[in-house]
Amino acid sequence: WLLLHNYLWIFLSTGIILKSLWKSQGIFRKQLVSLVWGISIPLVANLVYQLGGESLKIFDLTPASLAVSGLFFAVGLIRYQMLGLIPSAYETVVQSMADPVFALDRKDRILLMNRAGQKLISCRQWIPSHYRLKDFLPDVWQRLKTIRTNPDGNESDPYRIIMDSRHYYMKNLPLKSQGGDHIGSLLILRDETDRI
Q1: Strands 160-163 and 110-113
Q2: How many CB atoms lie within 10 A of CB 19?
């Protein structure tokens, strides 16, 4: 009975994660994929041991599979910052914003963007996280790079940029970990065309 109870909770929680995986995009999708693999490998190994015949009960692969699942968790934690980024408010706040918003990592790779950002770069769905901002918005990336290296530059207003006859005001907010380390930035492009 206890074994059935444990499997029920594992399958229920995995189902919730899979539902989130279906809706997620960018780096959150990669985090969830590593989480699903990390859960699935020892689960399958233990199911084979528990439900297999006598010939399969000679050697339990569950402990070895836990070591393999640890590798998937490590990839999620280290490479995809599984516990460093919090997606909870993303859907509600960022997606409802009329201005394009891009979450960038330290290498200016696009981790997330809202619908306005997708529309700006003519992308209907999530893009792989290895694509950099400079691949989609080279003028914005160049201006951002200039602002970061020389915040008091020569231009009268380095935060303004014109793209496709639209006037945008750039706002770049640094994202920091709880330890204060720089982990990326949030780029907001406020469309001010109608105000000019």
Answers
A1: unpaired
A2: 11
3-class SS of residue 120:
helix
Helix (H, G, I), strand (E, B) or coil at 102: strand
What's residue 15's pLDDT? 86
CA atoms within a 13 Å half-sphere pointing along the CA-CB vector of 87: 21
DSSP for 139-184, written as a single string = HHHHHHHHHHH-TT-SSS-TTEEEETTEEEEEEEEEEE-TTS-EEE
Tokens, residue 31: 């985090």
Q: Which helix (H) or strand (E) holds 2?
A: helix 2-23
pLDDT in tens, 10-66: 888 888 888 877 777 777 788 888 889 998 999 888 888 888 777 767 788 888 999
d(CA 168, CA 55): 68
Euclidean distance between CA atoms 78 and 104, whole angstroms: 16
Q: Return the structure tokens found at 181.
A: 């380390």
Q: Which residues are paired to 138 by β-bridges?
A: none
Three-state DSSP state, 111: strand
How far is Cα 149 from Cα 172, in angstroms, rounded to an integer?
A: 13
